Amino acid sequence: MFIQTESTPNPATLKFLPGQTVLEMGTADFPTSDGAEKSPLAERIFKVPGVSGVFFGNDFVTVTKAEAIEWDHIKPAILGAIMEHYQSGQPVMLGEAQTASGHADHSGEDSEIVGQIKELLDTRVRPAVAQDGGDITFHGFDRGVVYLHMQGACAGCPSSTITLKMGIENLLRHYIPEVTEVRPVGL
């Protein structure tokens, strides 16, 4: 098994490509080791000292490290953990563990606008963000302001504010006149 690695715009995060499907559908975000018991793979990666976050996409695993740790010191152990997992035959996610389509539900008078926002995020934004090892999902819409949740490499990325304001906000405002601003939300 050959696992490729790619840097991301976030220097604290690396993208690992195991050459096979990680998740069939959706994403799974483990911003801390809490909840990692839902995933044998996440649990295994969190056992590597210095790992602070794990995120799964369709064909990649994104790992975030603690600031004081150097990639050279933990990258081999992470590669080993991913390889061991795939050789073990265990699933990435256990039983009923839910992977997220990501978007928060929204009903009410703005539901048509929210549908357009989600459509643009799914077709234009999320594929590009996945290239960088992350995901951006809809969290809410209130009086012209779109609230988005950033995951994986996007969470804590120095360039995420620019991506939100210059990229996503401009895109949404162009196609949906009711959108006036885009803001990030924490968990």
Automatic annotation (TrEMBL):
GO terms for molecular function: iron ion binding; iron-sulfur cluster binding. Belongs to the NifU family. One of its GO terms (biological process) is iron-sulfur cluster assembly. Coiled coil: none annotated. This is Fe-S cluster biogenesis protein NfuA, 4Fe-4S-binding domain. InterPro entries: FSCA_dom_sf (IPR034904), Nfu/NifU_N (IPR014824), Nfu/NifU_N_sf (IPR036498), NFU1-like (IPR035433), NIF_FeS_clus_asmbl_NifU_C (IPR001075). SUPFAM superfamilies: Fe-S cluster assembly (FSCA) domain-like (SSF117916), Hypothetical protein SAV1430 (SSF110836). Residues 3-89 form the Scaffold protein Nfu/NifU N-terminal domain.
